[in-house]
Design goal:
By secondary structure, this protein is α+β, with helices and mostly antiparallel strands. The chain folds into 2 domains: about 160 residues; about 60 residues, no CATH class. The protein contains 7 helices and 14 strands. It has a 4-stranded antiparallel sheet with strand order 4-3-2-13. The radius of gyration is 26 Å and the shape is elongated.
Length: about 250
């Protein structure tokens, strides 16, 4: 009877690659989550919105020598602009290309007498809050497992190392599944009053963006999640069975 011995070996090249990919996709996911460009309305007045932030236009008017007031644009009577682009005050600066509001977290970017206001979408769909929590939480799990691997794998024994990497692989597979679910759930918010006001009430509904189009924030999230799907596979390849040659076994003959 021919018996072939084996031992648990570790591929440190795969370990480093897995760590870099895990941390990289988690950072990319968080960046995509912060972008206010998941859906873009190209038609004037141009606007865009994401999971937690949105961006809209307006005009700067002179108030006095030290301050500028930002009222809703009178030439556009869209309901969403009248409600969300309320008057705010920013400090006057010699360079109007960058100015910051006195009240955080509002920020204004001024270019040619136009500005963009970004803040949390209080008028958006509640499903976006859930999507943000799920997608962001899954990204944190990917980063945590990617950092825990290189720290723990070297100090574990071979068999424990194999079990640990299998556990990390399962955790990352669950995190990627949550991210995929979040990307599928996000368009449900297009049926909200906010999305319909921005993208057009006539054609905007669940999974139909009306006058809006997919933005690079959404595409970045999709690409990041697609790459993240390889992380559980790489985690499984960190440890492997190193079989000894037949002739090294006493039972070979």
């Amino acid at each position: 009877m021919k018996l072939r011995g084996w031992s648990v070996a570790t591929s440190w090249t795969v370990t480093v690659l897995w760590c870099v990919v895990s941390v990289g996709v988690s950072i990319t996911s968080l960046v995509a989550l912060a972008l206010p460009t998941w859906f873009i309305r190209p038609n004037p007045p141009a606007a865009s919105f994401g999971v937690w932030w949105w961006s809209g236009p307006g005009r700067i008017q002179w108030v006095d020598e030290t301050k500028y007031e930002i009222p809703p644009p009178a030439q556009h009577q869209d309901h969403w602009l009248q409600e969300l682009a309320l008057p705010y005050v920013v400090s006057a600066q010699d360079n109007l290309h960058e100015s910051e509001m006195s009240s955080d977290p509002y920020r204004v970017a001024v270019t040619d007498n136009f500005f963009q206001v970004r803040w949390s979408i209080t008028g958006g769909a509640s499903i976006w809050i859930i999507v943000g929590a799920l997608y962001g939480g899954a990204a944190v799990v990917l980063a945590s497992t990617g950092l825990a691997g290189p720290l723990m794998i070297p100090i574990l024994k071979p068999k424990a190392r194999s079990s640990f990497t299998r556990l990390l692989s399962n955790m990352q597979a669950a995190a990627v599944s949550v991210q995929l679910l979040s990307l599928v759930l996000y368009p449900l918010g297009l049926g909200s009053e906010f999305a319909r006001q921005v993208c057009g009430e006539e054609h905007t509904t669940i999974y139909s963006c009306g006058d809006c189009s997919l933005g690079y924030g959404y595409f970045l999230a999709i690409v990041s999640t697609t790459v993240a799907a390889y992380c559980p596979v790489l985690a499984r390849l960190i440890t492997y069975r190193d079989y000894s040659p037949y002739w090294s076994s006493v039972n070979y003959l």
